[in-house]
Amino acid sequence: MTERIRTIIGKEWSEVFKNRMVLFTVLFMPLLFTALPLIMLGTMSGAVGADAGDMTDMPAQFARACVGLSSGECMQIYLLNEFMLLFMMMPLIIPITIAAYSVVGEKTTRSLEPLLATPITTEELLAGKGLAAVIPGVLATLLCFGLFVALLPLVGVGERIFAYITGPTWLLAVLVAGPLMAVAAVNFALIVSSRVNDPRVAEQLSTVIIVPLLAVLFGSLAGIIVLNVTNMLIGIAIMVVADVALIYVGARLFQREVILTRWK
Amino acid sequence: MIQTEGLTKRFTKSKKEAPITAVDGLTLNVAEGEVFGFLGPNGAGKTTTVRMLTSLIAPSEGRAFVDKLQVGKDDQKIRERVGILTETPGMYERLSAERNLTIFARLYGVKDVNGQVEKYLRMLGLWERRFDEVGSFSKGMRQKLAIARALLHEPRIVFLDEPTSGLDPEAAKLVRDFIEELKTAGRTIFICTHNLDEADRLCDRIGIFKTRLITVDSPENLREKLFGRKVVFHLQAMLPGLAERVRGLPAVKDVQVVDSRLLVSLEDPEAQNPGIVRALVEAGAGVQFVGELRHSLEDIYLEMIRQEEAQS
Q1: Predicted ipTM beyond 0.90
Q2: Contact by Cβ (8 Å): B145, B100
Q3: Among residues A47, A58, A183, B189, which one has the fewest Cβ atoms lying within 10 Å of its Cβ?
Q4: What is the pLDDT of residues B171-190, one digit of tens each?
Q5: Chain A residues touching B109 at Cβ < 8 A
């Protein structure tokens, strides 16, 4: 990483974390997303016995994937999978907030022209701004996931549920798919941010990137998509392609001249 | 230090509309250590020219060299070597003055970041406020900070786009004095300004520009070219026939009477003034004092723009 990328990251963080709203988003949202599944698990482990629950309420595709588990465990896993998507959403929401403001914010404060007048390359600038947005989101997610796993025994979760949460599906989702989605979200937000003139528009348009994840959430709730290792690997492969494409397009669309001369 | 050959910039708003020419065939040479004033009305293309010369935007046609580096080919190197004060110098409002400068010093690859930041904060009288958020700064302080930002990496060429625009007289004087210091230090300075008095005082040469370069010369030469040299003779009273008598003297090109003053156009006032004073005294006129009529740069500028508009 070059000195200039590190400088941009440091600059972005200095600015962003002075904004209390952003700081609140970075701290509160991940904690909320961590607390929700813990509360649910705590409530369920007290109320549901090993064989309680009705498997007929569950989507057939998911029920088939529950082989070897009690109906209660299967129900917990089914609900936990929806919360897994929250952990995947976590590294998206924070970076979008930061990245969406990133370029358009510099336009509104008129600091973009002096910045572009320095010897920084477009790639360094985008890498700095992108990493400044991705790192807090991914770190917050990893910390919250660590906290979530550490607190699981305290909410009365059984061994098999614990094993499932610390198993490949969840680990792939939290450690690989989530960060990859964050990279895609940030690059999308940077593209939007460099092409609009209003920070509000940038933020609203950037949130569009959450739509595919919501589609997965609803697909999972409806039983159309089962969150297992195979599907997770397919998703990861798609995300890698999407990330590469968005980074490439982002760098191509970031035209210094257009940004400077069309901005009023 | 700065050379342009037929430098042209056209902007295309949409495919349906014809392109707008902002800069048309600019050919210019700015020598090392020179302070060059770039004057022109709003929308003349001055900022576009500066943006091209600082490798922020690409020319549509022509070539430009900055410190022997070609715009469009050596852009990153050019940006390393020039300093720019943009027309609206934005700052990171939530960050302190020191943090703002530190960021830019690092981006410019300055080796002694803390030393350079301290040097310029002290030089521009901002050291005591270094930890304050820039958002709390007055316009004058921001402008000074922006100038410091442009100089952190000790560029040999400095572009200043409206350096005293919107500043109160005290802040404007401070900025001007600082530019004088830069001039003394031998830096090449390219100033875009509307402040003609400022250009007159600071610049070795000025270029009057309105999409294309109308004229380039030193303020003195422009005065002479446009208005010639005129001497004002303040008299106790205007005697009848005095103007005609002076007009008849050798080397006098023209005489105008304004109240009790004679405005005499001369080729070489230093050589011809004693003879005219003698003739006036011999004719019975009481000469109170004599001085050269100095047209302001504003007169020159307005005349050049008027001529340009009449031609086009």
Answers
A1: no
A2: yes
A3: A47
A4: 888 888 888 888 888 899 99
A5: 3-4, 119
